[in-house]
Amino acid sequence: MVWRTRRYSLLIALFAMLAGTICTASAGEVRVAVAANFSGVLSEIAERFSAETGHDVIVSSGSTGLLYTQIVQGAPFDVFLAADQARPKRLIDEGIADRGSLFTYAIGRLVLFSTDPDLLKDLSSLENPAIDRLAMANPKTAPYGKVAEEVLKAHNLLETFESRIVQGANIAQTYQFVASGSVDAGFVALSQVMGRSDGSRWVVPADQHGVLAQDAVLLLHAGENPVSLAFMSYLRSPGVRKLIESRGYEAPTGP
User: What is the per-residue pLDDT for 123?
Assistant: First the structure.
């Protein structure tokens, strides 16, 4: 297994140099499983990648936990963009993903958002009786739900809202609950509200919950697919990093 990991690592490094000059005459595809919070950004990245290389990016989005389960059960993905670090590493330990391909592609931020422009200012706003229903993603399968739960627990608010929490299967569904006005407020990804000038929000300080580091990994069976390798390299390119930062994420330091 070690020689396979080294081989994939070398191939990824090679495609980092070639990704911008891949010939469109041999167009192929890469199948990407992406955490719901990053699906909008990935759509932009995929469009750019396809325009530059001629290759197709087939995207499936959902909660990190659900996608992990699908991969373990044999879903035909090539690349996994998780919303945490635990599940990509677990896939490596289980012999399903390549250790040498693992890297952090983004660091997310949690925000409490409401369509009501006067509702939220800071954490104390949760004590406002006007907040009856609060949305958050399922903490068992969605990392953004897990950190939202951490914030509520840290401030002794989980029991207060326990019977009034509306739980989304993933952060995308959670955002829909909030955006539609079905709930009064909700914990969502900052990237989801970056383009909105309406409503009110409180960006949760990063030191109030675990780091939302999001890791990407190549599945072993995709190691012979040059398009998958090129796409992994493309995700680490300076232009893509700038795009990720502009959409409400922190870009990790390092290569």
Answer: 86
Up-side HSE of residue 203: CA atoms within 13 Å toward CB? 11
- Kindly report the pTM of this predicted structure: 0.82
Residues 6+ apart with CB under 8 A from 8: 98, 100, 101, 218, 220, 223, 229
**2-107+211-246 and 110-203 share one fold:** yes
Q: Which fold has domain 2-107+211-246?
A: D-Maltodextrin-Binding Protein; domain 2 (3.40.190)
Centre a 10 Å sphere on the Cβ of residue 128 and count the other Cβ atoms it contains.
16
Q: Is residue 25 very low, low, confident or very high in pLDDT (cuts 50, 70, 90)?
A: very low
Task: Identify which of 70, 41, 29, 26 has the alpha carbon closest to the alpha carbon of residue 235.
Answer: 41
User: Are the C-beta atoms of residues 49 and 231 closer than 8 Å to each other?
Assistant: yes
Measure the CA–CA gap between 61 and 41, rounded to whole angstroms: 12
What would be the CATH architecture of the domain defined by 110-203? 3-Layer(aba) Sandwich (3.40)
